[in-house]
Amino acid sequence: MNNRFVVIDIETTGQSVAQGDRIIEIGAVVIEDEEAVESFCTLVNPERSIPPFIEELTGISDEMVKGAPTFHQCIPELMSMLEGGVFVAHNVHFDLSFLQKLLEHEGYGPLLVPIIDTVELSRILLPTEESYKLSALTEQLGLEHENPHRADSDAKVTADLLLLLLQKLRQLPLMTLQQLELLSDSWISDMGPILRQLIEKKMHDHAREEEVFDIYRQLAIRKPVKMKPQEEEIITTTDTFQSFKDRITQEGGSLSKAFLTYEWRQGQLKMMEVVHEAFSNNEHVLIEAGTGTGKSLAYLLPAAYFAHMEKAPVVISTQTIPLQSQLLERDIPLLQKILPFPINVALLKGRNHYLSLWKFEQALARGCEQDSYDTILAKAAILVWLTETERGDREELNLPTGPGSFWATVESDGVSSLGKYDPWFSRCFYQRARTQAAKADLIITNHALLCTDMVQKNGLLPSFKQAVIDEAHHFEEVASDHLGKQTDYYSLYYFIQRLGYGDKEGLLDRMFQLAAKEDVKLTVDEEKVKTILQECQLELDELFRMLHRYVLQNRSSSKSDVGRLSYRYESFREQGTLWEAILESGMRVHLMMKEGIKKLQLVLTCFHDVYDQLSFFDQGLLTDAKGVIDRLQEEENNLYELLLESDPNAVYWIEIEPRGAKNATFLYSRPIEVGESLADRFFATKKSVVLTSATLSIKGSFDYQMERLGLHDFGVRTESIPSPFSYKEQARLLLPTDIPAIKDVSEEEYAQEVAIKIWRIADCSSGRILVLFTSYEMLKQVYQYVKDLSMDDSLALIGQGITSGSRAKLMKAFKLHEKAILFGTSSFWEGIDLPGNELRCLVIVRLPFAPPDQPLLKAKLDKAEEEGKNPFRHISLPQAIIRFKQGFGRLIRTSQDKGSVFVLDKRIATTRYGRAFLESLPDVPVYKGTLESLIEAHKEWM
Q: What residues does ATP bind to (predicted)?
């Protein structure tokens, strides 16, 4: 193994040597025997001007490089350092190829050195990190990075990263190193010699590995940490909940001891009592708990008490992963700390969230000759992750997911499971999660699994009669998704491709090869099945292209259309020759698919008599094939029901990508109302369900939610628990009167006016501003206009869908700047936390009415009208008010927060229904006036 590593970073004038770009700075660090023994850094005269963007990025100017050596003069020292070393860089292809081309330009031969790419190595050895950019990694790993985008600082931090990665590599068990070594020939990095040396060393000293790792069937998996049993105080069945609660919440009780500064909150105590009474009296209850109530603890404490005393599990369901993470990482540990008895808590998600160990073993056994580079890296990353994870949950892992990804081939699923015959059954992550859930007092899950459990015959969750549904304002929407159907071209295409035909070897080829090997007589002709599959795919392609064309013909796009176009249809009422051709094509697909699936199932049947004699690998092949065939049949059934059947109680629509592939077409159906189904299939089967959120009521009434959820016949109790915050003292609602009415101007004029208003608010305010939009198109227009108005760089502009990155990354960037505007839509209306100085000003551009042409909403509006109700007041207005309350709630997050909400939609002050928005908010002072007068008032107050 080469123990000399030369870490290089270069700053350049651009990306292309051929177009005249040159190096402006070189940084290098030499590592020998795990220590930095030499460093080198120099500015380089590029003999051309430095572009303004590069100067801004690096801080290197033409003046600074004027007297610096040229690259030609730097070559001898650089070549001397590289001699006998491994060339290391973060994204090595760029640095190495740029240097190679410059050396060639200077008359030197190619650099023949082994290389290591720390991006690649990080993806393998740090599989749970959020990002693999150098700046992100240094922050995530706590590495010191003084001067990003300067070669000396970047080289130093890359050297620190390399040492950390090599240290991580040495800590891996022998089995994992051996598996990585088999994959390493396909990596960019020349890691083979390093891995072989580590393996050689481990061969003589790996005895203690089995204390930490479960070594089984060529894989090393971290053993679950056994929790020490909690010491239990005595709590008798004669203890009332009141006395139990008082022991914990009174001054000097375990709750106050668990916090450095515990705030006694009347609302939280009230909510505890309401939840306990609901469980005790077998009643359903809706609780609106204002921001700051501490509702998580308010339902967890009585849920834990009930579960412990009654020996009955309570399910806690959330909509979002952040809340689930908060419960598991913050609230549950606190609960376990303050309770006088032990409590078992389990997390259970949908099956496809968990890794299937037997599928992964199969994927490794197949080798990597036909694998893409990303698949090989995914295999390596999972090998490392298995030495760390206890849950096997994909949320921990930074890998692409979805159809076509490697994860889709190794995720756990019911249809291709070996069940008790699986040699991994006792170690299966999903089974482990289910076993823990079966023993748990509190089961944490999500709305999606709760609804899946509701519609499936075989329960996924252990039997339960009590539940808490947090973020309950989303429950109807999730239930609708799970009671509906959907499919698309790619989902069908993916499963046909998995089976395989033509040049690419798939499951079908491998089954026929297995039949030949085991001398199994097949009653099905291989070429006939492949021909059917190929014809199916061609017909599917044409069908989805026709659907795409049909939408374009019947739904003309407009400037306001962004992303997908949707078209609501009723299959047997559509007119025209194109739709007739679509129905004929749909029937041909159905008949061909039916024949193809029947033949594929016959192939499987032929192995029945020899199945027990087959190797585990071959049994796995057949089980995998059965899973894919079942999923293909499921997707085809969905397609048949969506195109060739019709339910009068459902709405059907097509979505297309107008600028995407011609077969990028998606079919959906949803029940128009889910209340009746929820009443019969969920609420009637439970003794007590607590539904809670900060936004459930409208002007103090819960009628809207009760109707949508089917709760009117259950004698439901409702409670409004006000926020402990003093909105009178902490917030202002500012309504500018000099904004044009939306209906009086064009959308472009309105966007320009909004941009000017936002820019004035930002110009006159200190700190950060969050601007919430209802339309992405409007967001883009306003962002550009504000950018044009901002003449200097003192104001950071961060736009969802414009600035790259996830919501979490955009939030992080927003917090980094003292003065910034974050432009957000959709997901930014809720679930984000910006306490204290992180947010002092919130701008709501328009009242959040959903577009009335959304198919499901339009169907609900039509149904309301048929029933003699006012569709706007019955459906559109309540939805918008709940959304508005969510957006308003982004501002005040703690008792110390202070700030203003500007609403740039005149309708809140000029229409009768606008009062309903104001009356649904906490008691916050409302001011109207010109924008300038409101800005002055805001500045004085702040």
A: 289-296
Classify burial at 544, counting beta carbons within 10 Å of its beta carbon; exposed 0-12, middle 13-18, buried 19 or more: buried
Helix (H) or strand (E) holding 206: none
> Could you tell me the pLDDT band of residue 560, with boundaries at 50, 70 and 90?
very low
Backbone angles phi, psi at 862, to 5 degrees: -65, -40
Q: Let me know: does 9 contact 154? Beta carbons within 8 Å.
A: yes
pLDDT at 561 over 50: no
Residue 230: the pLDDT is 52
Name the residue among 513, 447, 509 with its Cα closest to residue 474: 447
Phi/psi of residue 840, each to 5°?
A: -120, -10
For the record, the structure tokens of 583 come out as 């129905």
Q: Where are the beta strands (DSSP E) in 386-483?
A: 442-446, 466-469
- The most distant pair of C-alpha atoms in the chain lies apart, rounded to whole Å, by 91
Are 221 and 214 contacting, i.e. CB atoms less than 8 angstroms apart? yes
- 3-class SS of residue 694: coil
**Cα dihedral 627→629→634→635 (10° resolution):** 110
Contacts of 428 (CB under 8 A, 6+ apart): 354, 356, 357, 412, 422
Query: For residue 658, what are the contacts with CB-CB under 8 A and spacing of at least 6?
Result: 552, 557, 561, 564, 565
Three-state SS string over 644-682 comes to HCCCCCEEEEEEECCCCCCCCEEEEEEECCCHHHHHHHC
Q: Which residues are annotated as a binding site?
A: 289-296
Rg from Cα positions in the chain = 31
Residue 898, helix vs strand vs coil: coil
* Torsion, Cα of 304, 305, 306, 308 (10° steps): 80
91 CB-contact burial (10 Å; exposed 0-12 / middle 13-18 / buried 19+): middle
DSSP 262: P
Strands (E), 588-739: 650-656, 665-671, 688-693, 717-721, 731-736
779 vs 558, which has greater pLDDT? 779
Query: What pLDDT is stored for residue 41 in this prediction?
Result: 92
Where helices occur in 457-522 by DSSP H, the ranges are 475-483, 489-499, 507-517
Look at residues 794, 826, 789, 824 and name the one whose alpha carbon lies nearest to residue 809: 824
Binding site for ATP, by residue number, is 289-296
Domain 727-941: top CATH class: alpha beta
* DSSP 8-state secondary structure symbol assigned to residue 745: S
Q: 201 forms bridges with which residues in the sheet?
A: none
8 A C-beta contact, residue 506 and residue 537: no
Angle at 191 between CA 187 and CA 194, to 5 degrees: 165
DSSP β-bridge partners for residue 213: 222
Mention every residue, 6+ apart, whose C-beta is less than 8 A from residue 341. 230, 232, 233, 235, 308
pTM for the model = 0.88
Residues in the chain: 942
3-state SS, 832-876, equals: CCCCHHHCCEEEECCCCCCCCCCHHHHHHHHHHHHCCCCHHHHHH
**Are the CB atoms for 190 and 88 separated by under 8 Å?**
no
Element (H, E) at 324: helix 321-326
- Residue-wise pLDDT for 118-143, tens only, equals 999 999 999 999 889 898 888 888 88
Find tokens 């930014």 and name the residue: 828
- C-beta of residue 415 within 8 angstroms of C-beta of residue 351: no
Q: What is the dihedral of CA 691, 693, 699, 703, to 10 degrees?
A: -20
- Bridge partners of 654, per DSSP, are 567, 667
Q: What is the CATH number that goes with domain 4-171?
A: 3.30.420.10
> Mapping DSSP to helix (H, G, I), strand (E, B) and coil, where does residue 130 land?
coil
CB-based contact 54:24 (threshold 8 Å): yes
The token pair that represents 461 in the structure block: 């969750």
Residue 173 tokens, joined: 């068990």
Q: In what order do the strands lie in the sheet with 650-656?
A: 485-488, 665-671, 650-656, 565-569
Distance separating the N- and C-terminal Cα atoms of the chain:
63
